[in-house]
Specification:
It is a single chain. With about 400 residues, this protein is an alpha/beta fold. Helix content is about 55%, strand content about 10%.
């Protein structure tokens, strides 16, 4: 559970009695070298633009004097003992009282003078404003692996899965309306928060805008782990898109497996030759595994709808037309068909005086059909159990 400690209780209004418009939230982990300049730059940006606001520094269990320096510079310091990029921001969001929240890293890689530009976009109707660094990266600011491989690849996958249109999905400078936070329902505690915010915004149909910003070499030691954090982002994208993680591979394996199994069982010639039992076993394996993956994908989509508040048109369409009994019927029919095939094998065996069996193809087909039927039968029950959590 997150623990929040504040240096002092925040004022709900500025000196003129007006409600605060902007909360600048800065996560901080051992940034003693730069945090004072960050706080000063944030205050200057607000003052020069005539924006009433506050600067919140979330100290994420720093081992240096970052929190003390930030407080001396005029920031409201929040102490978040659970380390993590997401943990720090979630604590900052809970503490923020401005109408708008501007997120900025504490390493001076971003120009705090851009804060008014983000606020202007929010004033004009945007609900999430993303910075786009990719055309304005200063020499030495971003490793080539991040610039030309990691960030473009992960952003491309995110856009493929969720159709966000965001070019720089992992930019650390962005702004959001505070009243949108309940709809975003952010939960991740690590670097994945950057992806989660964009994904949730797209799923909630928020108006997302992008503005070009400069990106500078950082002050101090980087906290980013290239492969670990890259994998965490990719993993997060995959688990939040069951269609590409489960349904597409499952459907492909099921189709190819069924096609191979049927062709070999029917002794159809392909590429000028008849394929035998070993090919049929491979096809049956693909069919069985594919059907299992499809069942997992449907369960994942059901979990997203029932437990995570997802809006899934395909799942809602199927739920309105397909009942538990339909799945049980299909499963039962396939199980019965497998038993019939098995009965045919036994009949032929008995007809030959219970001698040597030579029904390998039919046996593989019977086993595959029966196993798929069993999977459909019990997967239908699993989906029904998940559906008990309907709102």
């Amino acid at each position: 559970m997150r623990t929040i400690q504040q240096t002092e209780q925040p004022a709900r209004q500025d000196g003129n009695g007006s409600k605060l418009r902007v909360s600048v939230v800065i996560p901080c982990l051992n940034e003693a070298e730069s945090i004072e300049r960050c706080v000063a730059a944030a205050h200057d940006a607000l003052q020069h633009a005539g924006l009433s606001g506050e600067v919140i520094v979330v100290d994420n269990a720093s081992e240096d004097r970052s929190a003390e320096i930030a407080a001396s510079a005029g920031a409201r310091v929040i102490h978040e003992p659970q380390r993590g990029y997401g943990s720090a921001y979630l604590a900052g969001f809970d503490a923020a009282i401005g109408d708008y929240i501007v997120m900025v890293d504490a390493d001076l890689t971003y120009d705090f003078g851009d804060i008014p530009r983000f606020v202007t976009e929010l004033d004009e109707g945007a609900e999430l404003v993303m910075g786009d660094r990719m055309d304005n990266i200063k020499p030495g600011a971003m490793p080539w692996l991040h610039r030309y491989v990691g960030n473009p690849l992960l952003s491309a996958i995110l856009n493929l899965f969720f159709h966000t249109g965001v070019r720089d999905a992992h930019c650390g400078m962005r702004a959001v309306r505070r009243d949108m936070l309940p709809r975003l329902d952010l939960r991740t505690t690590g670097m994945e928060l950057a992806s989660e915010m964009v994904i949730r915004a797209a799923k909630e149909n928020l108006e997302i805008r992008q503005i070009p910003i400069d990106y500078y070499p950082r002050e101090g030691e980087s906290k980013l782990s290239t492969f670990r954090d890259g994998w965490r982002h990719l993993r997060f994208l995959l688990v939040h898109q069951p269609t590409y993680l489960f349904l597409v591979p499952g459907a492909f394996m099921s189709f190819v497996g069924a096609l191979i199994t049927i062709m070999v069982a029917s002794q159809v010639h392909v590429l000028g030759r008849a394929w035998d039992i070993h090919t049929m076993i491979a096809g049956a394996l693909l069919l069985i595994v594919g059907s299992q993956v499809l069942g997992l994908g449907l369960a994942a989509r059901a979990f997203g709808v029932y437990f995570m508040g997802e809006h899934d048109r395909l799942f809602e369409y199927l739920r309105a037309r397909v009942r538990l009994e339909h799945g049980l019927l299909v499963g039962a029919v396939l199980i019965l068909l497998g038993l019939i095939f098995g009965g045919v094998i036994v009949y032929r065996w008995a007809d030959r005086g219970f001698g040597a069996l030579s029904e390998a193809r039919l046996a593989v087909l019977a086993a595959a059909v029966m196993i798929v039927g069993i999977q459909i039968f019990f997967s239908s029950f699993l989906l029904s159990i998940l559906g008990l959590r309907r709102r």
